[in-house]
Design a protein that fits this description.
This protein is mainly α. α1 runs antiparallel to α3, α1 packs across α4 and α4 packs antiparallel against α5. It is rod-shaped. 14% of the residues are buried.
Length: 225
Protein backbone atom coordinates (compact mmCIF):
# COMPACT_ATOMS: atom_id res chain seq x y z
CA UNK A 1 0.00 0.00 0.00
CA UNK A 2 2.84 2.40 0.76
CA UNK A 3 4.41 1.70 -2.65
CA UNK A 4 1.13 2.65 -4.36
CA UNK A 5 0.91 5.80 -2.26
CA UNK A 6 4.43 6.84 -3.25
CA UNK A 7 3.65 6.29 -6.93
CA UNK A 8 0.55 8.48 -6.69
CA UNK A 9 2.55 11.18 -4.94
CA UNK A 10 5.13 11.09 -7.73
CA UNK A 11 2.53 11.61 -10.48
CA UNK A 12 0.81 14.27 -8.42
CA UNK A 13 4.15 16.06 -8.17
CA UNK A 14 4.51 15.98 -11.96
CA UNK A 15 1.03 17.45 -12.40
CA UNK A 16 1.72 20.26 -9.93
CA UNK A 17 5.03 20.99 -11.66
CA UNK A 18 3.30 21.42 -15.02
CA UNK A 19 0.60 23.62 -13.48
CA UNK A 20 3.23 25.75 -11.76
CA UNK A 21 5.14 26.30 -14.98
CA UNK A 22 1.90 27.19 -16.79
CA UNK A 23 1.00 29.73 -14.11
CA UNK A 24 4.49 31.25 -14.12
CA UNK A 25 4.15 32.11 -17.80
CA UNK A 26 0.71 33.66 -17.31
CA UNK A 27 1.85 37.01 -18.82
CA UNK A 28 2.13 35.29 -22.23
CA UNK A 29 -1.40 35.74 -23.56
CA UNK A 30 -0.72 33.85 -26.78
CA UNK A 31 -0.31 30.47 -25.02
CA UNK A 32 -3.51 30.87 -22.99
CA UNK A 33 -5.39 31.89 -26.11
CA UNK A 34 -4.16 28.77 -27.94
CA UNK A 35 -5.26 26.52 -25.07
CA UNK A 36 -8.52 28.51 -24.68
CA UNK A 37 -7.90 28.92 -20.96
CA UNK A 38 -8.78 32.01 -18.93
CA UNK A 39 -5.74 34.14 -18.22
CA UNK A 40 -5.07 35.14 -14.59
CA UNK A 41 -5.70 38.83 -13.98
CA UNK A 42 -3.47 40.40 -12.89
CA UNK A 43 -0.66 38.14 -14.00
CA UNK A 44 1.17 38.64 -10.68
CA UNK A 45 -1.43 36.55 -8.85
CA UNK A 46 -1.01 33.77 -11.37
CA UNK A 47 2.77 33.79 -10.96
CA UNK A 48 2.53 33.74 -7.16
CA UNK A 49 0.19 30.75 -7.42
CA UNK A 50 2.67 29.12 -9.81
CA UNK A 51 5.50 29.50 -7.28
CA UNK A 52 3.33 27.94 -4.55
CA UNK A 53 2.35 25.09 -6.87
CA UNK A 54 5.98 24.35 -7.76
CA UNK A 55 6.83 24.34 -4.06
CA UNK A 56 4.01 21.85 -3.48
CA UNK A 57 5.42 19.73 -6.31
CA UNK A 58 8.86 19.65 -4.64
CA UNK A 59 7.28 18.62 -1.34
CA UNK A 60 5.43 15.78 -3.07
CA UNK A 61 8.70 14.60 -4.64
CA UNK A 62 10.32 14.54 -1.20
CA UNK A 63 7.38 12.58 0.24
CA UNK A 64 7.62 10.03 -2.56
CA UNK A 65 11.27 9.39 -1.65
CA UNK A 66 11.32 9.87 2.12
CA UNK A 67 9.12 7.34 3.90
CA UNK A 68 8.72 9.52 6.99
CA UNK A 69 6.99 12.25 4.96
CA UNK A 70 4.79 9.96 2.90
CA UNK A 71 1.79 9.68 5.23
CA UNK A 72 1.38 13.31 6.43
CA UNK A 73 2.08 14.83 3.00
CA UNK A 74 -0.25 12.38 1.24
CA UNK A 75 -3.06 13.13 3.68
CA UNK A 76 -2.68 16.89 3.20
CA UNK A 77 -2.23 16.61 -0.58
CA UNK A 78 -5.39 14.51 -0.82
CA UNK A 79 -7.42 17.19 0.96
CA UNK A 80 -5.95 19.94 -1.24
CA UNK A 81 -6.69 17.96 -4.42
CA UNK A 82 -10.27 17.29 -3.32
CA UNK A 83 -10.95 20.95 -2.57
CA UNK A 84 -9.28 22.05 -5.83
CA UNK A 85 -11.32 19.58 -7.90
CA UNK A 86 -14.58 20.81 -6.34
CA UNK A 87 -13.66 24.46 -7.04
CA UNK A 88 -12.68 23.78 -10.66
CA UNK A 89 -15.91 21.90 -11.37
CA UNK A 90 -18.02 24.56 -9.65
CA UNK A 91 -16.44 27.46 -11.56
CA UNK A 92 -16.46 25.60 -14.88
CA UNK A 93 -20.05 24.31 -14.82
CA UNK A 94 -22.06 26.49 -12.46
CA UNK A 95 -20.37 29.88 -12.18
CA UNK A 96 -19.86 32.51 -14.82
CA UNK A 97 -16.25 31.93 -15.91
CA UNK A 98 -15.17 32.98 -19.43
CA UNK A 99 -14.01 29.64 -20.81
CA UNK A 100 -14.64 28.14 -24.24
CA UNK A 101 -14.95 24.56 -25.51
CA UNK A 102 -11.36 23.29 -25.40
CA UNK A 103 -10.61 25.18 -22.19
CA UNK A 104 -13.62 23.59 -20.48
CA UNK A 105 -12.35 20.12 -21.44
CA UNK A 106 -8.90 20.94 -20.05
CA UNK A 107 -10.34 22.14 -16.76
CA UNK A 108 -12.73 19.20 -16.30
CA UNK A 109 -9.91 16.77 -17.10
CA UNK A 110 -7.74 18.49 -14.50
CA UNK A 111 -10.54 18.24 -11.94
CA UNK A 112 -11.01 14.51 -12.67
CA UNK A 113 -7.29 13.81 -12.22
CA UNK A 114 -7.20 15.75 -8.95
CA UNK A 115 -10.26 13.90 -7.71
CA UNK A 116 -8.61 10.56 -8.54
CA UNK A 117 -5.49 11.54 -6.63
CA UNK A 118 -7.58 12.59 -3.62
CA UNK A 119 -9.58 9.34 -3.60
CA UNK A 120 -6.37 7.29 -3.59
CA UNK A 121 -4.25 9.44 -1.28
CA UNK A 122 -6.56 9.92 1.71
CA UNK A 123 -7.63 6.27 2.33
CA UNK A 124 -4.15 4.93 1.53
CA UNK A 125 -2.54 7.40 3.93
CA UNK A 126 -4.93 6.30 6.67
CA UNK A 127 -4.19 2.61 6.12
CA UNK A 128 -0.45 3.12 6.05
CA UNK A 129 -0.62 5.19 9.23
CA UNK A 130 -2.60 2.49 11.06
CA UNK A 131 -0.20 -0.18 9.83
CA UNK A 132 2.84 1.79 11.02
CA UNK A 133 1.25 2.32 14.44
CA UNK A 134 0.56 -1.41 14.73
CA UNK A 135 4.15 -2.28 13.83
CA UNK A 136 5.45 0.30 16.28
CA UNK A 137 3.31 -1.18 19.07
CA UNK A 138 4.58 -4.69 18.27
CA UNK A 139 8.21 -3.52 18.33
CA UNK A 140 7.69 -1.80 21.68
CA UNK A 141 6.06 -4.94 23.12
CA UNK A 142 8.97 -7.10 21.96
CA UNK A 143 11.47 -4.60 23.37
CA UNK A 144 9.71 -4.55 26.75
CA UNK A 145 9.53 -8.35 26.83
CA UNK A 146 13.23 -8.67 26.07
CA UNK A 147 14.13 -6.03 28.66
CA UNK A 148 12.09 -7.67 31.47
CA UNK A 149 13.33 -11.16 30.60
CA UNK A 150 9.99 -12.63 29.54
CA UNK A 151 11.47 -14.23 26.43
CA UNK A 152 14.24 -16.82 26.09
CA UNK A 153 17.73 -15.44 26.50
CA UNK A 154 20.61 -17.18 24.78
CA UNK A 155 24.12 -16.74 26.12
CA UNK A 156 27.28 -17.07 24.03
CA UNK A 157 28.49 -20.64 23.89
CA UNK A 158 25.24 -22.20 25.08
CA UNK A 159 23.43 -24.56 22.68
CA UNK A 160 20.17 -23.09 21.47
CA UNK A 161 18.25 -26.38 21.73
CA UNK A 162 19.29 -26.88 25.34
CA UNK A 163 17.59 -23.70 26.55
CA UNK A 164 14.27 -24.36 28.24
CA UNK A 165 11.93 -21.36 27.77
CA UNK A 166 10.00 -22.31 30.93
CA UNK A 167 13.08 -22.52 33.13
CA UNK A 168 14.62 -19.46 34.79
CA UNK A 169 17.42 -18.07 32.70
CA UNK A 170 20.87 -18.22 34.24
CA UNK A 171 24.26 -17.41 32.77
CA UNK A 172 26.65 -20.25 32.04
CA UNK A 173 28.44 -21.50 35.12
CA UNK A 174 25.75 -20.40 37.56
CA UNK A 175 24.61 -22.87 40.20
CA UNK A 176 21.29 -24.59 39.68
CA UNK A 177 19.09 -24.02 42.79
CA UNK A 178 17.15 -27.24 42.16
CA UNK A 179 20.33 -29.39 42.25
CA UNK A 180 21.97 -30.02 45.64
CA UNK A 181 25.50 -28.73 45.82
CA UNK A 182 28.25 -30.59 47.68
CA UNK A 183 29.89 -28.79 50.55
CA UNK A 184 33.54 -27.96 49.90
CA UNK A 185 34.44 -29.27 53.43
CA UNK A 186 32.89 -32.69 52.88
CA UNK A 187 34.45 -35.19 50.54
CA UNK A 188 32.31 -38.08 49.54
CA UNK A 189 34.18 -41.37 49.36
CA UNK A 190 33.58 -43.59 46.36
CA UNK A 191 31.26 -46.52 46.88
CA UNK A 192 32.80 -49.92 46.07
CA UNK A 193 30.36 -52.75 45.51
CA UNK A 194 31.73 -56.12 46.75
CA UNK A 195 31.80 -59.04 44.34
CA UNK A 196 29.12 -61.73 44.63
CA UNK A 197 29.51 -63.90 47.70
CA UNK A 198 30.95 -61.13 49.87
CA UNK A 199 29.34 -58.76 52.22
CA UNK A 200 27.07 -58.88 55.24
CA UNK A 201 25.18 -62.19 55.55
CA UNK A 202 27.48 -64.03 53.20
CA UNK A 203 30.18 -65.05 55.68
CA UNK A 204 31.55 -68.61 55.24
CA UNK A 205 31.52 -70.52 58.55
CA UNK A 206 33.72 -73.64 58.93
CA UNK A 207 31.91 -76.91 59.43
CA UNK A 208 32.18 -78.44 62.95
CA UNK A 209 34.72 -81.24 63.35
CA UNK A 210 33.29 -84.68 64.04
CA UNK A 211 33.36 -85.81 67.63
CA UNK A 212 36.33 -87.96 68.58
CA UNK A 213 35.71 -91.67 69.13
CA UNK A 214 35.40 -92.70 72.79
CA UNK A 215 38.51 -93.85 74.50
CA UNK A 216 39.14 -97.56 74.71
CA UNK A 217 39.10 -97.38 78.49
CA UNK A 218 35.57 -95.94 78.52
CA UNK A 219 33.26 -97.75 80.90
CA UNK A 220 30.83 -98.71 78.16
CA UNK A 221 33.56 -100.08 75.97
CA UNK A 222 35.38 -102.04 78.69
CA UNK A 223 33.05 -103.48 81.33
CA UNK A 224 35.94 -105.22 82.99
CA UNK A 225 38.39 -102.68 84.08
Amino acid sequence: MKVLLRAVLFFDALLDLLLGILLLISPFTTLYAALQLPQPQPALFGQLLGVATIGMSWLLFQAAINGQLTVPVARTAGQVNLASAVLVVAWTLFLDMPVQGAGKIWLLTLAAVMLFFAVVQMPAAKRVRLRERQLQAEREAEHNAARHGDGPVYYPGAPVDAVDPAAPHQPPGAADPARPQASPEYRREPVINPPPGYGPGTEVTPEPEPEALPNAHHARQNPHP
